[in-house]
Amino acid sequence: MAAYALSTRGLTKRFPGVLALDGVDFGVRPGEVHALIGENGAGKSTLIKVLTGVYAPDEGEVLHGGEPVSFGTPLAAQRAGISTIYQEVNLVPLMSVARNLFLGREPRGRLGLIDFARMHRESERTLREYGVHTDVRRPLGELGVGAQQMVALARAVSVDARVVVMDEPTSSLEPREVETLFGVIRRLRADGVAVVYVSHRLDELYEVCDAVTVLRDGRVVHTGPLKGLERLKLVSLMLGREIGEVRAEGTTKFGGDHEAASAEPVLKAEGLRVPHQLHGVSFAVRPGEVLGLGGLLGSGRTETAKAVAGALTPSAGRVTVAGSPVRTGSPGAAVRAGISLLPEDRKSEGVVPGLSVRENIALAVLPRLSRAGLVSEARIDALVRTFMDRLRIKASSPHQKAGELSGGNQQKVLLARWLATEPRVLLLDEPTRGIDVGAKAEVQRLVDELAADGLGVLLISSDLEELIEGSDRVVVLRDGAVVGELTGDDVTEDRLMEAIAAAAEEEPVTEVPAASVPATSEDEGAPDVTPEGGGSPAGQLTPHDGESAAPDPLSAPQERKETPHG
Amino acid sequence: MAEATALTRTAPDRSAVYAWLQAYGVYAGVAVLLLFNVAFTDHFLSAENFRTQAVQVAPILIVALGMALAIGSEGIDLSVGSVMALSTSLVALYLGWGPWTALAAAVLGGVAVGLVNGSLIAFVGVQPIVATLALMVGGRGLALVLVPQLEDVRDPGMRNLGSGDLLGVPYPVLVTVALVVLVAFTVRRTTFGRQLLAIGDSRPAARLAGLPVRRVLLCVYAASGVLAAVAGFLATARLQASDPTSLGTLMELSAITAVVVGGTPLSGGRVRIGGTVAGAVLIQLLTATLIKHDLPPSWTQIAQAVVIVLAVYAARERGKR
Amino acid sequence: MSDTNTRHHGTRPADANAGGSADGSADTHGRDAEQAPPTGHGHVPGQAASSGPVRSRPRAERVSAFAQRHGALVALVLTAAVSALSFDSFADPGNLQNIAVSAAFLAIVALGMTFVIVSGGIDLSVGSVFALGGVLAAWGSRHGPLVALLLALTVCGGIGLVNGLLIARARLAPFIVTLAAMLGARGLMLNITDEGADTFLVAKDSLFADLGREKLLGVGVPVWITLALFLLGGVLLRRTRFGQHVYAVGGNEDAASLMGASVARTKVSVYVLSGLLAGLAGALNAAWLASGVTILGQGMELEAISAVVIGGTLLTGGMGFVSGSLVGVLLLKVIQNVINQIGSLDSAYQQVVSGAFLVVVVVVQTWLGRRRKARLTSPAA
């Protein structure tokens, strides 16, 4: 076997109170795609940051081509041929695509001044290989997220990298963009580049990776070839549990369906439009019902939830709660009407990190707990105690800062905040993303209970399994419009994938008048969306290998893979 | 960035020292200055001196209270000095109708500037530093347009307010104490206070929680404007003159210093009123000490510059997000 | 940017089969790239990451981009034209010369401020540093022009260095550091001048005085120096790696650092540059006035910031250009000149107008920025 292109020996990194890395031995060979996985807090990010020069290790060493190295800065690592693509696109949105691509290594002409003509020419040529066809003089921020990610990738690779580190590169990509990415990764492997690939999506790992290293609590618990390693075994390594347990925990904690079909809708959204984002979205949620919102990234799911909750201002459309209209564009009005939103971005839009758990829970109901603008501490205490018990929020005390809690507990604090307002509708945007398995199950169970108590729930989840098992009904969005609905026995992953796949092949429907939105639940058969030649899309798109947990339901047709080179 | 992070991560002791300094440094500083003056300054321990110091600290402290609210909401109000100037101009213009009318006019002026600031910040979405900078430029101009040069203020009522006392406590000090109590109570015990802190800590989260973000911000800057106007009124009463050219210049800096030295982080989400009081006292004592030891005023400016840099330096580890 | 429309057809041969209709629908609806209808994609292989058809900007956006970039110039031309028609004395060569020279000093300060603001910072110390530079240069001029300039530049550059180190290395907030520096520099200046009582004179026939008072081709030397500095500044910001780093640091500091730009060095450099230019402007001003006047420079930081922002530089950083700042300075000075010409108006109106201008520009910028953001961040992620 070839020598390691990049490796570590006994790497240890401490942060106050935390041993982030504990004697980590890790290595990636040239021409190898090496998966690095682990649960949140396992030390993946820290390891990457040490490898790429962001942190200096406390003990141990990084070996590059067999030689011990110490990169003081990301730049030093980059110059040594180690490039990184971060989870969020880390480029400068206001600068042009070309300037982003060439920042720090601009071609220079006379007098050492930058040769823009050459830079633009080379940028266009490079990006074409990555399937990005755009005017490279446009500000990068005008591109879609996927295209931005590709620019980041092109940048990372084009600095003559020998090692490329990818930190969850697919988290904001659409399935067909993921395919292009995989094409690039395979090309890198063929060129003998070592790739470190971090992802939570197991399917992706099995598709592109050769080897895997599993981290847990800052330690390497497994390293070896990926082929032949059972998926369940991998999960059990990550979680540190026995396989039997994983099997039991592997399924979601959602119970059965709820009987709600007959009741009047508690929430109705009609013809919601937000310029460039939503083009007439309508749906209804009945009390005691969990309505799933399906669709790909960028289909308008989050925007729909935000528009209903007043966080986005719709240019047209109506939201009614139990028949009475809600003023749109005002979160306050929505809260007063009984709509509450658990936002996707929990850290920046959910908890108030500097305030205590107690203050966070009481935040939305302060006026109700006050008299003449003066808060009643006793009533707050009573409320907080109730909800901390009921939701089993684990905090050292009610006065601990919310920002110090784990993701799952933060999510529960948010739920408590909303439940305190006695809402009628709960909008859950990726409620279990990034929280550990135990808390995930608890949150799922809780959602179930709440629906059983008569709340109307709107559930958005990229976890297909969660969406299907949690929802009684699923409305499918694409390009900011409703394109289908699954009810009853049709709420299955296959049906959902079909609906999305069918939608993706359809002619663009830029304006869907509210009236033309498929009527709800009038047929129990196939999804309503049947574009011209209903059978053909299903035939073209072969959902890959039928794995149930597939987060990306779309696998691109074969022909697409072959010609990324323009 | 990497270095800074590494530094704080590997030196918990040092960051604990900074944390202590941020929280209590201001009290230690005040104590040191007091001891120094008791030991080396003639006639420092006299009722008269204390009264003088208290009267002089009053405007800084009142302005600093408003600044603390603005900073707590993750904002800043650079227009306070100009509001003081505007206030003194309005007092000169309306004193003919009696001191109370003059006060009302000054306060209305402060509210108006505050509302403009607040609207720019809350409704248009302009950064606080930029919005209040514009009013800082325009406000003093307006004050000078109203009253182009220094005017004497001769009014027995004003004079009594500026230099009279109740049981030996000068009126400006009484007013200041009342305002300190009022603001402290508002921050701690009212929904407005809680909402203000939540907004300062995380604006998007507060918005999504249904808090009336715009209204709260509008109130914050209006309050800051009112407090600065009151400070301008009191200063006019004490000086017996309306001088919009120089009144309140660099006041924004003194107020920010008082707030920051007092341990309120510039990143918002927290307001320390006790610390702010101590911060204002610290600045006043520093100035008084230098003057009493015959150092020219320029030294005061240099010293204040050093103090403010030290204060933000001590606060930086914890204020960082 | 206005040629986007014509370019994209050339660069995207793959689109040919999609035909104009796809382009049309994407354009008219102004969708974000990611959401663009997949009409084209369906048949074009390997296009996964691409945006849809390259979108030409809708007219509204082109107009706003134009307003951002050239609004100040339009306002300047209009104001100057109206002034010239209204006041006979305005277009007088002597008056124009006056405007040019008085604009020169502010312009030099604004040039440094442009770099600072583009890097995402702010420098409130320039007014004090300007005054300090003038006093130091006047004091040093008795030993010759070289000493005068070197003294002013060294001390003022040093203040910029301290600012930069505190901001970049200690990571303190720029406005507070430079506010402290404003106080410190003024304290220092008062200290050397015996609390403002001493005024150092520049000998009228000295070489240093010539620097401020001589004319070249009928135009004052400070004006020539200013133009040269702006030319250099423009090249520095647009055409060098350092300039790219300034943009990158202002646009997204974390990204810039991860992309290998030296954030700290870039920041320190812009504050040093700002200090140097403010000091130079002060020195030239002292040469022009033949004395180091201690009361100068108050409020100059606000004027400089106003000029830069009016000139189209984004106060939040990451976007801007030096020529706009020059236009912004000229606009402020023309307005000031007009106010002076209307004898009945007090000079305080200048401040009111500046403040009002600042409010308007900032409101428009924020509004445009928000619209742009709304367009850019439409996809869920």
TrEMBL record, chain B:
Listed transmembrane segments: 17-40, 52-71, 78-97, 103-123, 130-149, 169-187, 216-235, 247-266, 273-291, 297-315
Keyword Membrane: yes
GO cellular component: plasma membrane
Location of the protein in the cell: Cell membrane
GO molecular function, one term: transmembrane transporter activity
Membrane topology classification: Multi-pass membrane protein
Keyword match Electron transport: no
Keywords of the record: Cell membrane, Membrane, Transmembrane, Transmembrane helix
Source species, domain of life: Bacteria
InterPro entries given in the database record: ABC_transp_permease
Protein name according to UniProt: ATPase
